[in-house]
Amino acid sequence: MAASVVKRSVYINDKVFLVTGGAAGVGAAVVRALLAENARHVAFIDVAEREGAALETELLSKFGPLRAKFIKCDVSDEDQLATAYFQVVDKYRRLDGVINNAAVLSDSRHYKRMIDINFTATVSSTLKALEKMGADKGGNGGVIVNISSLLALDLSSHLPVYSATKTAVLQFSIAMGSEEYFAKTQVRVATVCLGPTDTAILNRTNLENFDKDSTAHLTSRVPVRQRVEAAANGVIEVIKSAKSGATWIVANDQPAYDCSGNIAEAYQVLSKTQV
């Protein structure tokens, strides 16, 4: 058995997690699912203060005191993100898992915001998590799940900036999850490529911000979207089962599955291409 395989039955139980972009959508569903799996505590960060506070109230009522905590935070702000990490570790004296879910989708006019949140913040959060959890830093090891998209595996002329950020997340996560890093940190880093999911990021109001060609493309490509609960269940399965460096697909309301072999094979082909 590979060193990075985890005992499924014990990994979430009584552990402390941090979820970015956790106030609504897939992030909120992951927060709920972690608590249902008996996580000791789940902190979730987001800029959406009203939604975050409402979710915290709901979770404390359902799961009990101190089980959940909302922290208002713009993940693209290094100081705010560092403060959020400090608050979690200072209060609970440990951190066992981080799900980097925060993302935005807009047209290319807002490219910098997409890059800052979707990719740069994922890198920053991953590195901060390794500082807190890494065995080489005095931590107990853990797991980091970075949320990418099926668009990272799809050559398309639509949504070029968003797709590029999600492709960058995938490549970064595969590298950070290598056996070399895992042997040092004892932190598994895995990637989830989500298929289209029924969240606000794909609602009609958001899509109206795009040009007509992009909107028509999105509408035709995603007539059916998976439920947020199905997406969250897939993330939970990855937390329990994924080897470090693995890439899993969660789409179409189907069980999560490991596609790492296909990706490795594809990169082998590309690396042999001669110009």
TrEMBL record:
GO biological process terms held by the UniProt record: lipid metabolic process
Gene Ontology CC: one annotated term: cytoplasm
Superkingdom, taxonomy of origin: Eukaryota
This protein's UniProt keywords: Oxidoreductase
SMART domains, per the entry: PKS_KR (SM00822)
A Pfam cross-reference name: adh_short
The keyword Oxidoreductase belongs to this UniProt entry's keyword annotation: yes
SUPFAM superfamilies for this protein: NAD(P)-binding Rossmann-fold domains
Domain Ketoreductase, residue spans: 15-153
GO molecular function ontology, one term from the record: oxidoreductase activity, acting on the CH-OH group of donors, NAD or NADP as acceptor
Family: Belongs to the short-chain dehydrogenases/reductases (SDR) family.
This protein's name: Ketoreductase domain-containing protein
Lineage: Eukaryota, Metazoa, Ecdysozoa, Arthropoda, Hexapoda
